[in-house]
Amino acid sequence: MTKFEKAPTLQEIIFRLQKYWSEYGCVIVQPYDHEVGAGTFHPCTFFGVQGPDPWKVAYVQPSRRPTDGRYGDNPNRLYQHHQFQAIIKPSPVNAQEVYLKSLEAIGIDPRVHDLRFEEDDWESPTLGATGLGWQILCDGTEISQFTYFQQMAGFEMKPVTLELTYGLERIAAFVQGKDHVMDIEWTEGVTYRDMRKMFEYELSDYSFSHASVERHWQFFKQAETECKETLEAKIPYAAYEWLMNCSHWFNVLDARGAISVTQRTAFIGMIRSMALSCAKCYRVVKGIDKEEK
Amino acid sequence: MSLPFFLEIGTEELPASYLPNYARQMKEDLENYFASAMLEHKDVVCAWTPRRLAFFCAELSEVQSVKESDVKGPPVSVSFKDGAPTKAAENFALKVGLPLDKIGRVEENGKEYLFARVKEGGKKTTELLKGKIPELIKGLRSPKSMRWDVKPTTFARPIRSLCCLLGSELIDCDLDGLKAGREIKGHRFLAPGPFEMEKADFAEYAKLLKEHFVILSFEERRAIIKEQLLKFGCIEERLDEELIDICANLTEYPNCVKGSIAPEYLELPPEVLITTLKKHQKSFPCYDSEGRLEASFLSVTNNDLKEEALIKTGYERVISARLSDARFFFNEDKEVTLKERREKLKNVIFQKDIGTYFAKTERVACIATALGEMTGNQEAAEIASEAALLSRSDLTTAMVFEFPELQGIMGRIYAERVDKVSRAHALAIEEMYKPRSAGDDLPETLPGAILSIADKIDTIIGCVTVGLAPTGSADPYMLRRQTFGLLKTIIAHKLRFKLSDLAKVAVELLEADSDSFKKNFVSIMTERMGISAAIQENELSLIANSWFEPHSDAHKLEKQFTSLFMGRFETVLKEEGVSYDIIQAIFGSPWPGIYVARKKALELQEMKQDAEFLTLCNMLTRCVNIMKDEKKGTAACKVDTALFAEKEEKELWDAWENARLEAHALLENCEFGKTVKLLASKMAKPLDDFFTNVRIYADDKAVASNRLAILKSISDTIQNKIADLSKIVTA
């Protein structure tokens, strides 16, 4: 970014990333209409990485982390933040260069900043997923996660998929030089505060103080049953939606402080087992694997 | 002829902690391979940056050495049938790689065998390395490795280039489709290059890299960082060398940027400020000329800082956000006293079979009180015991949740600021954790020392009891280190008590506390202690003896406990320069407690320079040997002066009577060195004269047994009161 160019707004950053990845060959898909904790949950990633066929998609995914809710007061933490995710299978030889070029597209010139690839081994116990890669630091601020998926839902990735996750609020605050997320310019004349403050406040309040623990237990149990039964019909997309629900309700219960250490392990185990079953079913339906007799 | 050899493995950013190991492994593998492949070579040198592992050998033979050897084959009788070669002959020809008509015969013991002279080696180095280099790279091991793209290769991060040269020849290795070339990448942003290597020349390689903003040598990067840190405001004695290592392994072109933080953050406890900088941002705190923290920091960048202001602003913003979080945690934590937090410890598990931290701190408070009684330090123990009931509460604070390494330190800070306890109490809470690592300071205050000992013995006894005694390299609760710290603290604070008494207290408390406690262990411990008390010896001497007799039937748990303590105690002594024979001499005498045993050991060690002392040791060895030989006669119960027949035996006895009195007075004050010196000067000569001039086994059995009684009196007394000097090596 030259000194005279105005820093891009949040929505401009999204446009530019979409344009960049579209030109790279990614299909631009839409956010999934379910509550999720991270872009990795989007079926385009969860299912898309399975099997040998090339796959390139990119999308914005609003991601909810009820325990991170701070009523819109904290400068960096949010109940719901926005991730931009690019998924490329197989990972390309010039993966790092392709990523760095995308930064230039959104106004970050790696030559003049201290841009670093620092070891970060990623793991999602709920999805049975692992990956190796880096967190990308720009002048000390983490702006992206760069992951070579090794496993998803317990299946070895062959070939390996590259997952690039941009923390959109972090990046916007960084390029716009804002100290508080609420001060980010969403588009000209409109701040993040205008758009999100009330939502952040209410959802934080709900997760920490109002969400009915008892009903959320029931939601969880019912959704788990629904997921299992739906799988019997061999319709993995439909079953997987209930997994996303379970995962979210688990996070709400966690924010309510309703989950003990031992329960946590058990819950994570249940969700992982659903994830494994969904992926297994998907692979059979898709013809990647043969059905076990 | 020899040529220089060069190899660069170009990678995406490797984890900092893997780098040195990777490079050293490969260097060794190369050297081992060169040797096994009969390639004459000089030592291989290695270097690394986050994006490359580089190797160089100044001289590597262009061809393999040639080795000729004679190989004997099957007997001729089975090699041919009806004049035609059999399978046996064909196999032999195949094995030695020669046509049948080139195979000779040799006669051995009248029998004829096939025979061949085989030439090994002579292959071109480039041909050998072509296949070997990829194999060696794939053989490298790291804590975690990954696959990438569509390749079967595994490595810590993707390998993107290979350059392998012998002289100016490119060795065209192929690593799962990645072909070696001459291209070398420069700094990712400042001068990506790539440039080409014409020949294997390490100096040239380093020079070209430097032109491309890459400093090849880890030591050089480290030196640059250190120099800049010191220049811009770090203090030498407070430099975190480990963090410098990490930064030197995270950068190719290190440059420090200095940023400032809002002065209000200096109101945070310094430990919080420093930990936030180091752990979250790998940055260093700055100090003013009087050693006080300054409102600034230094971060190590991988940039030439042409746009320093831009980078500085970025770092300032992120560090300020981190400090703002830390201040938030600190202020939140201060809303609740440690005393109030205590209740929450009922839900924090120390170890699943032992129980909660709440129960642990209750026990530790009791042990501290008991230790005060045993050592006559009731006042300090009262502080320690009260501090115990505030300790560990900081585990429930947001700050310790964020920075586990601050436990104890936050305890001290909150105790003083929130619970408003005395400085002594607060310090004890922090010192309980000391020493935290091998080289760390010991607790300085007496209450801190008492609390630290109490906490450690509770941990050790608890863990051994539930089967977590260290085995081999496995020691998950770091019991060896804790034992070591415990012993050193006892010594540093000159605490004189029987460790086994304290262990007994710990065992009883734990028994009362824990369902899973193995009653068996208690009964064995108490039984042993009961017996020991009855015979007025220290129970640990029995334990020590059982340690030297691994086949005795002592209970397994007790043995683990003992071996842990005695093993660490031996290490403490060895560290202080006490030799093994002295340690054995000490262990051969009734156990006087940790503090006294160490004093004894040090003083005896010093006496090893003294010729008279060594003579005394030799004399005592003779005594012990004579006592062992019971066939020739046994000692009388008591020495009868009326039976003295020779001048020397009377002189010996008189000398002993005298020396014994004087020695007794010295031993009262634990003056072991002086005692031994006295005994040596008074007893060495009379003993020598006795052995030289007196025939011990006189014809008169009563006289003989009286003479043995003299020797027994001397050697038993010395062994019981001081040490088994016969164990000392005098040669």
Describe the protein.
The complex is a heterodimer of chains A (293) and B (731). By secondary structure, chain A is an alpha+beta fold. Chain A has two domains: 10-206, BirA Bifunctional Protein, domain 2 (2-Layer Sandwich), CATH 3.30.930.10; 212-285, Class II aaRS and biotin synthetases, domain 2 (Methane Monooxygenase Hydroxylase, Chain G, domain 1, Up-down Bundle). Chain A has eight helices and ten strands. In chain A, strands 1, 2, 3, 4, 5, 6, 7 and 8 form an eight-stranded mixed beta sheet that branches. In chain A, helix 6 runs antiparallel to helix 7, helix 6 (213-232) runs parallel beside helix 8 (261-285) and helix 7 packs antiparallel against helix 8. The mean pLDDT of chain A is 93. By secondary structure, chain B is an alpha+beta fold. Chain B folds into five domains: 2-63 and 124-211; 69-121, no CATH class; 218-333, no CATH class; 341-575; 598-727, Isoleucyl-tRNA Synthetase, Domain 1, CATH 1.10.730. In chain B, 51% of the residues lie in helices and 14% in strands. Chain B is built from 27 helices and 19 strands. Chain B has a five-stranded antiparallel beta sheet with strand order 2-3-1-9-10, covered by helices on one side. In chain B, a hairpin with a 2-residue loop joins strand 11 (174-175) and strand 12 (178-179). Residues 515-554 of chain B have low confidence and may be disordered. The chains are: A alpha+beta (293), B alpha+beta (731). At the A-B interface, strand 4, strand 5 and strand 6 of A face helix 9 of B.
